[in-house]
């Protein structure tokens, strides 16, 4: 029973089982959730922390079943997207921009993202590359805000 719950968390329900681009759909879920619920940054941070803990544990255990950093494990994309929009205006433009930037950083994996993914084992490694992509995304948005929206 615990394995089924952990698999459901790691795959974000059915999303990890989609045949095409489950990571993109995991990130898209984050976009839609934030867009329609508009949580304040305090709430979003608490959700992020809960997902980080649950995601790390569930991804670690699901990896034993699905294989190393399986595409079925998408909790990392959801968690990474939430990190990417912390302290960012919750407008459609910023949230969608965060989605696009996050996907680029998650797919391209600029340094040190790829190295982190390759060297950190288990659930922590699965989560870490997406957290770094979320940080890169957030930094880009913060620079944009500083230059153009200040």
Task: Describe this structure in a few short sentences.
This protein has 150 residues and is mainly α. Helix content is 75%, strand content 0%.
What does this structure look like?
This protein has 7 helices and no strands. α1 (2-10) packs across α3 (41-66). The radius of gyration is 15 Å and the shape is globular. The chain has helices spanning 2-10, 22-37, 41-66, 75-84, 92-108, 113-119, 122-149. By secondary structure, it is mainly α.
**Oligomerization:** single chain
| Derived structural class | mainly alpha
Largest sheet: none
Low-confidence stretches: none
Nearest-angstrom radius of gyration?
15 Å
End-to-end gap: 51 Å
Helix amount: over 70%
Mean pLDDT across the residues is 95
Strand percentage lies at under 5%
Task: Name the descriptors.
single chain; 150 residues; mainly alpha; globular
List the helices and strands and how they pair.
Layout: H1 2-10, H2 22-37, H3 41-66, H4 75-84, H5 92-108, H6 113-119, H7 122-149
Helix pairs in contact: 1-3, 2-4, 2-5, 3-4, 3-7, 4-5, 4-7, 5-7, 6-7
């Amino acid at each position: 029973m615990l394995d089924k719950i952990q698999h459901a968390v790691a795959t974000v329900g059915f999303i990890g089982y989609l045949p095409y681009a489950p990571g993109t759909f995991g990130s898209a879920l984050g976009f839609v959730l934030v867009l329609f619920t508009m949580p304040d940054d305090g709430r979003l941070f608490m959700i992020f922390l809960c997902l980080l803990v649950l995601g790390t544990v569930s991804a670690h255990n699901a990896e034993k079943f699905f294989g190393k950093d399986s595409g079925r494990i998408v909790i990392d994309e959801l968690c990474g997207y939430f990190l990417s929009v912390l302290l960012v205006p919750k407008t459609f433009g910023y949230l969608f921009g965060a989605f696009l930037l996050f996907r680029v950083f998650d797919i391209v994996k600029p340094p040190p993202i790829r190295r982190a993914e390759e060297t950190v084992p288990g659930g922590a490694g699965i989560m870490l590359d997406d957290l770094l992509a979320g940080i890169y995304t957030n930094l880009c948005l913060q620079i944009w805000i500083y230059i153009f929206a200040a």
